[in-house]
C-alpha cells in the first residue's frame, strides 16, 4: 500500500476510521485502542478479523454486481491495526444527511424510495446478514445508491431458518431510522420495490406481504421509541449532542456559544425573547435538579422524535437548576380553544400517538402555539403508556 499519501479523514470512531486516499480510493482503518486482558496481540488479531470480514463481504457482493465499493487491498496498517483499501464512489453522501436536510435530495423521493428498495433486495438476495442497517450506511447521489460498512456483516450461501427473522429485523431498523424523516408513502414505495425485487423463492419464505409490511411499521415505531429513550443520557455528557460548559453540571448544544450560555443563565424562568434575536423565543424552565433533568430529557426526546416543540439549547444541574429551549418565532402560550383551531391539537395528539409517547401528567402551561400550530415545551416527562395521549388530553380538558 502507498504509505506516502495523506488521506483526509471522512469518519472516525473509537476503533475504526475512514479516510480518502487520493481521488479514487478510500481506506478504512481498524485500530482498537481499548485495553485487553490478553494483551495487544489480541487487539491486533481482532482488528485483522474485522478488516478481513469487511474485505470478504465486499468481494462477494461486488462479484454479484451489488452496489458496494469494490475492495482493492487488505493489509496491516502502517501505525498498527489493519486496513481495507477500496474504491471511492464519487458524488455520494450518506442518506441520513439527506433525511436531516444537510444535503438536497439527489432524486425525487418516489424514485429514490424505489432505488433503495432494490438495493436492499440485492443485499438480501446475496445472503447478507447485517446487524446494523441504517441510513448512515447508504450513500446516495448521482447514480444508484451504494451500501457500505460491512465489518459486522456476513454472507451466507443459502438462507436458513433464521432468514425471515433477519429480514424482519432489517425492515424494523430501516423503518425506525426513517420514520421521522420520510412519509408513510415513501416507506410503502420502498417496501413494494424491495419485495418485488426479491427472488421468488425468498418471497415465498417471508409469508404474507401485507402482514410483513404492517409488522415493520409497528415494530419500527417501537424500536425508534426505545432507541430515542436510551439515547437521552447523551444530552447530559460531553459528546455529539452536547459539550460540557461548566464542569460536570452544565451542558450546551454545540451551536450555543459561551456568550449565549451566559445570557441564558441570567434569565428567569418563563418565556423570553432570544438573547441573540428578539424575533425568536426562548423558554427557560427552573426547579430542583432531578425535575430539571427529567424535563431536559423529555425535551430532547421530543426533539429527536421530530415532534413540534422546543429545540434544546442548554441545561445546568448545579445549585440553580434550569434548562432552556428555543421555540419558533412568535410563539405564545396557547389557550385550549386556540390550540384546537384548525385541528392543530388533534394533529399534535396524532403525532404523539405515532411516536408512541405522551406527556406525563402535564397541564396547559406546557401548550404553546406558533403560526397556528400547537406545540409542546417544558413538559416534566414522557410516558409510553398505550393510553398516554388520551390521559394527556383528559388532563387538558380536551378529550371528547
Task: Give a structural overview.
This protein is of the alpha+beta class. The chain has three domains: 8-87, 2-Layer Sandwich (Phosphorylase Kinase, domain 1), CATH 3.30.200; 93-231, Orthogonal Bundle (Transferase(Phosphotransferase), domain 1); 239-400, no CATH class. Helices cover 38% and strands 24% of the residues. It contains twelve helices and 21 strands. It has helices at 40-63, 95-99, 109-125, 163-178, 184-197, 200-203, 209-230, 258-265, 289-304, 336-340, 344-355, 388-396; strands at 8-12, 16-21, 25-30, 71-76, 82-87, 92-94, 128-129, 138-141, 143-147, 154-155, 242-246, 250-253, 270-274, 277-287, 311-317, 321-327, 332-333, 358-359, 367-370, 373-376, 382-383. The strands form six sheets. The protein has a six-stranded antiparallel beta sheet with strand order 11-12-15-16-14-13, sandwiched between helices. Strand 1 and strand 2 form a beta hairpin. The radius of gyration is 24 Å and the shape is globular. Mean pLDDT is 89; it is low at 1-7 and 35-39.
- Averaging pLDDT over every residue, what do you get? 89
Number of strands: 21
The strands making up the biggest β-sheet line up spatially as 11-12-15-16-14-13
Main sheet makeup: 6 strands, antiparallel
The percent range for helix content is 25-40%
Beta strand %: 15-25%
Count of discrete domains: 3
| Structural class by sheet pairing and helices | alpha+beta
- Rg result: 24 Å
Q: What global shape is seen?
A: globular
Tell me the distance between the termini: 70 Å
Low-pLDDT runs = 1-7, 35-39
Query: So how many helices?
Result: 12
